[in-house]
Write a structure and sequence with these properties.
Blueprint: H1 2-21, E1 29-31, E2 38-40, H2 42-80, H3 84-93, H4 98-115, E3 123-130, E4 134-142, H5 145-148, H6 151-164, E5 177-180, E6 189-194, E7 197-202, H7 203-214, E8 219-227, E9 232-239, E10 246-247, E11 249-257, H8 262-281, H9 293-308, H10 314-332, E12 338-339, E13 342-346, H11 347-353, E14 356-365
Amino acid sequence: MAYLRNAKRPLEILLHNTRLSSCGGHGFSTWATKGTSFAHSSDTKVSKTAYFCWVSRRLSSQASSSAEQISLIKQLRERTSAPIKDVKASLVDCNWDIEAAQKDLRKRGKVLAMKKSSRTASEGVLALAQNEGKAAIVELNCETDFVARNEIFEYLALALAKQALLVENSSQQVPGVFSFGPECLEDLKFNLEHPKISGETTVQNAVTEVAAMMGENVKLRRGFVMSSFPNGVVSAYLHRSPQPGLGRIAGILSLEVESGISQLNALQKVGSELAMHIVATKPLFLAKEFVTSDALNNEREILRSQAESTGKSQMAIEKMVEGRLRKYFEEVVLMEQKYFLNDSLSIKTILDNLSKEEISMCLPLYRPVHSCNDYGGIFL
């Protein structure tokens, strides 16, 4: 034990000298018989200086390299809006070549987007585009409200709405009105001019690329196009709109008058207010004659059951049912509803005052509060 204790100190000195010698010096040490003290030559001091200078240069080089890498990560992140972990992984794989990493990142993103395509996309926006005689609305879905507010996502939605104006459908059940699915736009080519997503591409590729950027399932769900009549207008209203052309609830309708350009301005004003009214009241039918027999029979059964619980005569029950049906029509039939800006007038009265010729209306596309993955909407 005594021998080992005495041997520790010389061993430490030898190791120290070896480390200094590896730096290119010629240091050596001498120590007394007990090994408790030693002296360094002038060469050893030089070796120490060389060693610390080498360490300093190495740390400085590492710091510079780290700063450059951080800068590259930041630049690629700004270019693509991809998650930081994916940005760094692409740069590492491409030996910190930012151009190659950007291409690799797009490939990675498309693969991830395909993997996430089965996930529920219950959030999103409605985008509206209009020209002189037509209006188009598209629904673009994502997984979270955070992505729904992203500027790239919103830009894509508006760009898709503009493309929807170009869609034509020869098999229209109602002239000038039709809805369509994503397959009508997927192969359509268009140009994007956003700093982070630009160039000519197809609708399907654009949606996939944005999905890769956002890291979520993004999908175009459906669209709706309405054209005006020769002497008419198309009006629309967007509710909860973060910017012009976007919203969570939309109302769109078309009105026509018999003749007279002078009435078009008044018609446009009323049309805008009616679109707002539709969003506020969410009617289910345009007029009483369009109420389906199933809906009417179900409501009659409910009202009859309520009336019979009062114990009154059959004649009184029938009168109660008919009276409550009138109230039901005022709630779900647009033409019977009270105008939300003036409840002394019905919608039918307002349109009669405009000497209408023909009316074509679309009830609002809206997102029910408790719906997990659907937007409601009815066309009449």
